[in-house]
Every structure is written in C-alpha cells, then in structure tokens.
Specification:
Strand content: under 5%
Radius of gyration: 30 Å
Structural class: mainly alpha
C-alpha cells in the first residue's frame, strides 16, 4: 500500500479497537475477568509498540516515560494488577532506551551538540522527572503490598533514589561532554566534573529529601561525605598535572578556579564529619582514635595541597618555574604550615581537654622538625631558613607556655570527645 509511514497509526488503531472491545465486554458484565485482563494486556502492548514503530531516537524514550506515568496513574485508579506490571515493564524499556540515547549523544566528543538543548540531556531530565512523578503518585497511597519482593515503602524509596541517580548521570554526562568538546585534552572537563559531583553530594545531603527515604540515612550522609573526600584525594594525582599544563601553556588558566569550588565543598564535608564525630555515641575509644588521626592527617594534607596550588598560581612566571616554586614551598612553606596546624591541634586539644589531639600535635611538630633538619636545610634560600626557624621557634615557645600554664589539665587523662 506504500503506507509504511503510517504503521504507528495502524498500531494505535489496533489498540483502540481492543480497548473498545474490552469496554463492551466490561459493560456486559457476563464475560470472564481473565478475558478482560487479556484484552487490556493486548491494548497496552499495542500502545507500547507504537513508540518504536512510529517514532525514532529519543522520542521513543519520551513516549515510554509518559506512558509509564499514565499507566501507574490508571493502576492507582483501577487497581488492575496487569496495568501496574505493564507500567514497570515500560519503565524498564524507557531506561534501556535512555541508555541508548546517552550512548548515541555522548559517545563522540568531536561532534558539537547544543548545550543542554540536546536529545541526551532532555531525555535524561524527562525520564528523571517521570520517575519522580511515579514517586509522588506512590506517596499518595499507603498500601500494604509488595513489589518484586520489596515492601511498598521500599518501593517508593527506590523510585526516589533512581530519579536522583538519573538526574545525577544526566548532568554528569552533559558537563563532561561539553567541556571535553570545547577544551579537548586540557583536563578542564575533569575539574568541572569533580566540582559537579561535590556540589551534587552537598545538595542531596542538605535537602535530605532523598536520604530520609533510606533507613539510617544519617550514616548514608556520612558515607557520601567520605566518598566525596576520597574522590578529592584520588583526583589530586590528576589535578596537579592539569594545573601545570594550564600554567605552562597560559591558556584557560581561569578555569582552574573551579578547583577551589571543589576544595571549599570538601572543606564542608570535613567540617560535617568532624561535627558528627564529636556528637557520635557508642563508638569504641580505639576506633575513635583512628578516626581522629585520619581526620587530622586529611586536614593537613588538604591545606598543604590547596596552598600549594595557590602559590603555583601566584608566583608562576617564565622566570619562576613550577619546580622552583614547589621546591621552595616544600622546604619553607610546609614546615610553617605544619607548625601552625600543630599549634591549632594543641589549642583544640587543650580547649576540649582531649589528650589524643595533643599527642597528634606533638607528633606533627616532631615530623616537621625532622623534615626541616634532615631534608630541607640543603639548598634552601637564607630568607626561607630564617622564616621557617623563626615561625617554628615562636610556635614552640607558645606551646611550651601553654603546657606550663595548663599542666594539670594535660596530666589528667580526661575522657571527652573531641
């Protein structure tokens, strides 16, 4: 008939015919219920097949996303199980179609696509919104039912978590693709990707909407913070070469500022974790001591790295290479910074009467002095030697004075949380 372009219309007409037949049998009220369910299933099948037959690309995904919401709404009104099952099946088909859309959109970074207004991003946002609507619809119902061996409460929680994950992946793919396309082989995409992940974790933790759907969500929040910190530490192996390349080429150096957005958020993660540790109960002393040591080590490393990035950015020039700047910073800057950190740890250890912090402070002082005398005295500028010894001397005198004034507090082994 040379009417191949109307196959989708033919399919939807078959669905309408079966729906009309179902309605006629339903009004008759003499037909077996199983036959009604069979006809409803055939109707839903034809409706679902209309998308891949008539539409192309991400339009199939959008159609299925809309259909799964409509079917779930119909299920809530009719309580017909086959409608509910079809809604789940169509959602799975939607998810698979979305993966195909992402693969076709973001697989080749050499191709320019519209920022945000492209089929991969729109399909991802639409599917995330559809899943969120399913969660909203489920929120209105309180049923004592099970879904694939999940309780109704777990089912609702899974919907919200999946909607959040879809939203996260959609933004992650879009940011990574666009920056990799416009700034190829410069690592800028990785900086923005890291910032996006940290911002997303912070937003999820602050809003609490997603985490409250998870049992023991307070612990999940801490795990997210820990994951953000670990990701930050791992990324340092890549961030250092990126900054070096940007400074040496003197191109797009301003984009490195996004790194301090990530650093600020990681600082918030550290603060929140320390605050949680201070208020945590039922943590064994040995485990708490390990947490405190790790937290202090990460704080010192965090400050050392970020100040190093700042000194590289401020002092780099054609006459000052990164190697020279790093050498001076390691031999002069680090001893001063570590001495200040040690002093701060000592001050907090005395203020909160926490012995472990005082031990960490003295240990860091010892490491700083050993580093200074064993490794840093060779080839260090005279001004650097004077600055390092002067600052450390002042800090040691202050700490010694504090010990003498608060000797009784230090000797007493008081058991208080940091």
């Amino acid at each position: 008939m040379d009417a191949a372009s109307y196959r989708g219309i033919f399919c939807i007409l078959l669905a309408i015919f079966n729906l009309a037949t179902t309605y006629g049998f339903f009004k008759n009220k003499k037909i077996d219920t199983n036959i009604l369910y069979l006809l409803i299933g055939i109707t839903l099948t034809f409706i679902s097949l209309t998308a891949p037959i008539q539409l192309h690309g991400h339009y199939i995904t959008l159609f299925w996303a809309s259909e799964t919401v409509l079917l779930y709404w119909l299920y809530l009104k009719s309580r017909i199980r086959i409608v509910q099952l079809t809604s789940m099946i169509i959602w799975a088909a939607m998810a698979f179609s979305l993966l195909m859309d992402w693969q076709s959109t973001y697989s080749d970074t050499s191709i320019a696509i519209r920022i945000i207004f492209n089929k991969g991003f729109i399909a991802g946002i639409y599917c995330s919104a559809a899943t969120l609507i399913l969660y909203t619809l489920a929120q209105k119902e309180e049923l004592d039912e099970e879904y694939l061996k999940w309780s109704y409460k777990q089912y609702k929680s899974i919907l919200l978590i999946i909607a959040t994950i879809l939203l996260f992946i959609t933004g992650l793919l879009e940011i990574g693709y666009q920056f990799e396309h416009y700034y190829p082989n410069e690592g800028i995409a990785q900086l923005y990707t890291l910032a996006y992940i940290n911002v997303f974790i912070l937003v999820v933790a602050v809003t609490k909407a997603v985490l409250q759907e998870v049992e023991k969500y307070q612990f999940v929040k801490q795990y997210l913070f820990i994951a953000g910190i670990i990701l930050y530490l791992i990324s340092l192996f890549r961030v250092y070469p990126i900054q070096a390349m940007l400074l040496q080429q003197q191109t797009h150096v301003l984009h490195f500022s996004i790194n301090w957005v990530s650093a600020a958020i990681v600082g918030v993660f550290l603060f929140k974790l320390i605050k949680w540790l201070r208020s945590a109960e039922n943590i064994p002393d040995n485990t708490m001591n390990i947490y405190v040591w790790i937290s202090c080590a990460i704080i010192v490393l965090f400050l050392s790295v970020e100040i190093n990035f700042m000194t590289n950015l401020v002092f780099y020039s054609k006459n000052n290479s990164l190697d020279d700047i790093s050498s001076v910073y390691i031999k002069t800057g680090l001893p001063i910074l570590w001495g200040i950190c040690s002093f701060v740890f000592m001050w907090f250890g005395m203020k909160y009467k926490y012995k472990k912090l005082r031990i960490i402070s003295l240990s860091l002082f010892l490491v700083t002095l050993l580093k200074l005398f064993i490794f840093d005295l060779n080839n260090i500028p005279v001004a650097g030697k004077i600055a390092a010894f002067f600052c450390l001397g002042i800090l040691l005198l202050v700490v010694s004075f504090m010990y003498q004034r608060l000797k009784k507090i230090i000797i007493e082994d008081e058991h208080k949380t940091p």
